[in-house]
Every structure is written in C-alpha cells, then in structure tokens.
Design brief:
Rossmann fold, 3 domains, 16 helices, alpha/beta, Isoleucyl-tRNA Synthetase, Domain 1, 4-stranded parallel beta sheet, single chain
Length: 496
Amino acid sequence: MQALKVYNTLTRQKETFTPLNPPYVGMYVCGPTVYNYVHLGNCRTFTSFDLIYRYLQHLGYKVRYVRNITDVGHLVGDADEGEDKIAKKAKLENLEPMEIVQRYTLDFRSIMQLINNLPPSIEPTATGHIVEQIEMTQKIMQNGFAYEAKGSIYFDVSKYNEANHEYGKLSGRVVDELISGSRDLDGQGEKQAPEDFALWKKASKEHIMRWNSPWGEGFPGWHLECSVMSSKYLGLQFDIHGGGMDLKFPHHECEIAQCVGANDTEPVKYWLHTNMLTVNGTKMSKSLGNSILPHELFTGTHTLLTQAYSAMTLRFMMLQTHYRSTMDMSNDALKAAQKGYKRVMNGLRIVKKMQYQENLEIPKDEKQIAEIEKIVSEMYEGMNDDFNTAVALAGLLNLLKKINSFHNGVLNINSLDQKTFDLTKNTFISFVEDIFGLREENQADLGEVMHVFLEIYREAKHNKNFEQVDKLRAHFKSLGVVVKDMKDKIDWAFEE
C-alpha cells in the first residue's frame, strides 16, 4: 500500500505524511465563531476534517484533534476595527454575549452530531484562554515584533520581515500588495503600517466584552486565540493545521507570524485547506437568497429545495467531491446522493449478514479474487492520495456490485477463499462506518418489521393470491421499500 500523501498549502505540493512524533498526530482546525447558526459551507469544512481525523485513526495514528470555539475577538468584517460579532448580536437581541455563545455553540454541536462528525479531543474557547493570550502578546513584544499604540498592541510586520521571516508565504501575498490594497479604516492611524494587525485591542466605552491587561481594559485580536490554543494543547510544533481556504489570509498567515514571533519556531508542518461550497454553481450569499442552513435542508423549507434531504444524504454528497475541489450543491446532486446513500445502506445490511462456508467442491474463482483485491487497493490509494474520498467512494460502489452479485446468486460466495471474503466484508464495513462515517438513519428496527411482512407476502405468493401480492408491493413502495423476488429467496431493499 502506498504511503499517505497530503497537499501542503505552505509548500504548494503533495508531501509524504510523516508525523513529528509517530504514532502521535496533532491536528488543529479553526472552529466556528458562534454568533449565528452554522451554515453548510462550515459543515463541509468540518466534515472534511472529520474524514481526515477518521482515516488517520484507521491507519493506526493516535490523533489529538483540537477544534476551537471563537467566542470573542472576531470583529465584523474580519478586520481590526468595528464591533465584535457576538457582542453585536447580543445587543440586537438584548442578551448577554455568553447567552449568544451558548445558543449557537449548542446548535453547532447538534448539527455536527446529526452529520455524524466525531467530537474533537479538545474544544477550547477563546474566552477560556485570555491569560495565555496576554502572555503571548507580552512575549511577542519582548522579542521586538509588536508595539503599543493608545492601549492597543499591534504586530509589526516590517520588523518581522527584517528578521528574515516572510509574512505572506502561506497565502502568496506580499507586503507591497497588502499596503496598496488596504483601505483607509477608522482607527488605522494607530498602526505604524496598514499591514500590521492587532494582538490586543483597547476596549471603547461601548465595547461589552473586555478584560484587564497590562495595557488597560481590552480584548484579544481574532488571530491570537488559535496560536495560543494550538501551541498549548499540541506543542510549539504540531502536524496538521486545517480550515477553510478563506482563512488562509489573514487568519492563518497571522497565526504563523505570531508563533514565530513568540517562539522563533514554525508552528505547523502541514497546512490543509478546504474549498468552498456553491449552490447551483453560485457562491452562497444571503443577498442572493441561496444561503441554505442545515435545518432548512433537513426540513426542505428553503425555496431552492424541492424536498427535504437527510443529514446522511448531505454527508454522502460531500464524500463525492475531494475536499480541495469546489463542491456544488443542487437538487439533482442531492437526489443522486440520496439514492447512492440508500444503495450503500442496503449493501451494509447485506454484507453484515453474509456468511462464508468453505466448500472444497466449488473451485476458487481467481479472476474474482484478483478483481476484489484490486478494488480494495484502489480505495486505499484514493484515501492515501490526499484523502480523496471521491476515488475511494467510487471503489466502494464497485465493491458493492460484487457484494450484490454474491447476494443475488449471480456469483457464488464460496468461489472466494476465506481471506478474500473477509477482505470484502471488513473493508466495506470499515469504509462505510469508520472512515466515511455513514450510518443508518432509520432508528426503528425495520429488519424485524420487514421479516413479518415478508412472511405474509411469501404466503400470499405461495397461495397465488396475486391481488394480495400486488397490494403488499404497492404498500411497500409507498414506504420507500421494494420487495426483491429472487430464485431461492425473497428479500427487501430501500427504493433507490
């Protein structure tokens, strides 16, 4: 099996994944700013890193996955001036900021659970690490890479670059472009240069969220929290830092500068970024009316949707696109994903019941054995090529064709050897449940219910009561279930 390769945004190439301290892997992913409901673009990012987390664990790595909650410091417009997003929402709703934080943190976690994303190992908050953020700011100042201006502390990008560091290397932006492209913001006069960014901001009289510091009452800059929490829980250097591509600049660029400025150490070995989610080929935007929230998808209440789609349908659709590619969502794509998901769930139910009995009179089919080994190899090759779930899923569906052929009697299961049978069964189950994170959404034990009805159906068919047979088939169809009459048995499946 080929080695795992990941695309490193920093070097702009695929690299063999070699952890700093195997078998341990440290992974940090920028979490949500909890001032509103999590949107589907966020869901795509967090599901992508859930798949990466799952696959690393599948390979035997012991992963510490840290994903933060931003509950202070993220200002409107992602700049260094303006109102805190959470405080603004709190004023609008006449609530305490922490009520806003609690409401949307719970929403975020419930959506992640519905999509079947595993919880991270640690989920720290920005407000829980104010002391550490002040300490890192002091350290950066002591090292000569920050300055005070009217009670605010700014990172000095020019001093950083003069010390042979390269601000902009992650995003590919250069300082001259940043200067020429900067806007004349209110309060920017405090900065020595427009490309400098806030580590700590002095709180105005109107600012709700504020803490004491050596420079007076204020609050941390947005970028500082991730540098603090990643280094606290994963060390000064760790393996993977992830997030959406929109965070490359300025957020992740500033994180690198802060860590190097404080510790003189490059913090991250591999930077991974997910691409955007579009709707009908267009970027999601509230102004365009195509920004769909998870609960609107699950209930079908958005005007762009023709029906409701389940959380597992959404997850299946995400599997069909590589995390670094743009993923387009449409009713057609969702319906196809719904069909594909049901097909895989049918396969999972079948494969779990499959039994192997050695029969020496049946010759082994070396062609089938070789084809199955090739399919399994291709599935792992896909995942090892920068976590390409689209390739791995295509392999899984090919494996499912083999499973269905054995189940329908087209191929004889005993024509395999025990090793290949186990490979088929174990690979399918582990990819579906452990790596892809798909699960059966119907909580009722449908198998037991169907067993009873199939007995009635079998009896009606035996007695040639075709009117009863047709009624039962029509009833099953209305429930989204089809009856499968095979040569030697009667079975059922979800309608695809």
